[in-house]
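CATEGORY: protein folding

GOAL: derive structure tokens
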Amino acid sequence: MEKLSEIKCPKFGSPTTSILKQYQTIHNGARQLLICKDCSNCFSETSNTPMEKLKSPISKIASSLKLRSEGLGLRATGRVLRSNKCTIAEWEKLFANQKETLMLYGFCHQFVSLIFESDELYTVVGKRKEPMESEGWTGVIMDRASRFIVEQKCGKKDSSLFNNVMKTVCKYVDKTGDITFLSDGERRYGNTLFELCSTELRTGKVGRPSRTLPKGVKVRIKNKGNQNHKRGRKRPKYQAPQREHPDTEQNLPDSEIHANHVEAQNAAIRRRNSTFRRKTNTYAKTKEDLQRTLDVHQIIHNFVRPHWTTGKVLSVAIGIISKPLTLETILTMQKAA
């Protein structure tokens, strides 16, 4: 928590700074002007933060983010706060840029073991197209135990989408030696993970060594649909799509192979993100707009809003930070170098 709120010189990143003086702003009260002891660079406490060069009241920006995170549309939020919808979208973009900083801080946490669930959502982006041609697909990766959203990426449902979400999973593979990845019928998650982080299994025998998932990494798929079709090869209901390391502990019962928790989370996203509303026309205009709303939702879900079952903020519950963050704190937090 202390590292997140620490002010560093925006020029060289030095933390050794001192207060030079204070100055008054129109809407946000007194602010500090600091000086770097190493390079003598003078800068405001809002330098390299979302509030840099913004004159709007921080309380108004936080209110717009709160309204949007509860499912209010962009135009409706503008009418409530008497602000232009383009201004609110720009505030969201600045806030969403803090995702990299916060998730990078989460990678520093030492996880013992993780069970990831994956699923996809769909909405309309721009004009209506065939579902497989639309950029409105969103891949969601969530930790089962804590409900911590690991990644949310949108785009066409092709290899690039699965690569984008699984690259983040690979970072967690490097941090812990015990990861279980579960999917309801979508095999491309496991195949992409195998392509990104598979290793050679050297047994000392003659011949080319076979490739396996890293030791401790398990991938399981629950194949949905009719398993009793007459034609073609029948797929087992539960299976591992790729070869796993022989030393990986196999302690996962079939009853635990599902993605029920992330599917419940997807229902919450449809309530809280207006771009996923099925009965209105508040769809995202572009892929970038949809990704912006997803990043805002992920930040608030992981670091700000208490979970309704536990009453605790998810990042606090798993020990990433010591106390919940407020929207105002994130808006005044420096971005990662």
About this structure: The radius of gyration is 23 Å. Residues 1-48 form a domain with the N-terminal domain of TfIIb fold (CATH 2.20.25). The first helix runs from residue 2 to 5. The chain has a mean pLDDT of 88.
